[in-house]
Amino acid sequence: MDLEASYKKIIESIGEDSEREGLIKTPYRAAKAFDFLTSGYNEDLDELFNGAIFNENSKNIVIVKNIEFYSLCEHHLLPFWGTCHIGYIPNGKIVGLSKVARLVNHFSRRLQVQERLTDQIAKTLEEYLDAQGVSVIIQAKHLCMMMRGIEKQQSETITRSTHGCFNESEKMNDEFLKLVGI
Ligand SMILES: Nc1nc2c(ncn2[C@@H]2O[C@H](COP(=O)(O)OP(=O)(O)OP(=O)(O)O)[C@@H](O)[C@H]2O)c(=O)[nH]1
Ligand SMILES: [Zn+2]
């Protein structure tokens, strides 16, 4: 069964009339939206980075912060969203800045948990750049904790994934946190 037919079934399962005017095109719209929200599955990482990794000798920290993202909680299929802060220490290679944000979309536009999202972003960047170190922080709110379940409106989840020299150097960690400003 394709996505559109599945949505029609969901609408009917809750007792709604899938043929009424307001809902007639809803399965099509919802399928299109869900396709977009999970489009990360269809992207190729090599293509994403292709042509935008440059040789450069800087050994100083690079930070791209406040990258907003939307993802889907894999337990409830409800959105979680927030900001991602990424820092790395180059080791002969740097990456086009937009690709850092594309990497966040790549792993957030799918069914996720926040911890895995954080790790996948960090590990992939480390791998592609052969970086000396990578540190990623994600701050997010989960609708599954807000509009249902425990119904906490203010709680925020912070996750972190540190690799390479960030695991060994307190100074680097401090610099990253200070520049990110959280
Ligand atoms: N660690 C982690 N947990 C998540 C994430 N997103 C949602 N969850 C949690 O996944 C858990 C699923 O627990 P279950 O007890 O199986 O589901 P539930 O009965 O709907 O749980 P409640 O939300 O407590 O009502 C819940 O505690 C959610 O808060 C995430 O990104 N990371
Ligand atoms: Zn959830």
TrEMBL record:
<dbReference type="GO" id="GO:0003934">
    <property type="term" value="F:GTP cyclohydrolase I activity"/>
</dbReference>
<dbReference type="InterPro" id="IPR018234">
    <property type="entry name" value="GTP_CycHdrlase_I_CS"/>
</dbReference>
<feature type="domain" description="GTP cyclohydrolase I">
    <location>
        <begin position="4"/>
        <end position="180"/>
    </location>
</feature>
<keyword id="KW-0547">Nucleotide-binding</keyword>
<feature type="binding site">
    <location>
        <position position="144"/>
    </location>
    <ligand>
        <name>Zn(2+)</name>
    </ligand>
</feature>
<dbReference type="InterPro" id="IPR020602">
    <property type="entry name" value="GTP_CycHdrlase_I_dom"/>
</dbReference>
<dbReference type="InterPro" id="IPR043133">
    <property type="entry name" value="GTP-CH-I_C/QueF"/>
</dbReference>
<keyword id="KW-0862">Zinc</keyword>
<comment type="subunit">
    <text>Homopolymer.</text>
</comment>
<keyword id="KW-0342">GTP-binding</keyword>
<feature type="binding site">
    <location>
        <position position="76"/>
    </location>
    <ligand>
        <name>Zn(2+)</name>
    </ligand>
</feature>
<keyword id="KW-0554">One-carbon metabolism</keyword>
<feature type="binding site">
    <location>
        <position position="73"/>
    </location>
    <ligand>
        <name>Zn(2+)</name>
    </ligand>
</feature>
<dbReference type="InterPro" id="IPR043134">
    <property type="entry name" value="GTP-CH-I_N"/>
</dbReference>
<dbReference type="Pfam" id="PF01227">
    <property type="entry name" value="GTP_cyclohydroI"/>
</dbReference>
<protein>
    <recommendedName>
        <fullName>GTP cyclohydrolase 1</fullName>
        <ecNumber>3.5.4.16</ecNumber>
    </recommendedName>
</protein>
<comment type="pathway">
    <text>Cofactor biosynthesis; 7,8-dihydroneopterin triphosphate biosynthesis; 7,8-dihydroneopterin triphosphate from GTP: step 1/1.</text>
</comment>
<keyword id="KW-0378">Hydrolase</keyword>
<keyword id="KW-0479">Metal-binding</keyword>
<dbReference type="InterPro" id="IPR001474">
    <property type="entry name" value="GTP_CycHdrlase_I"/>
</dbReference>
<comment type="similarity">
    <text>Belongs to the GTP cyclohydrolase I family.</text>
</comment>
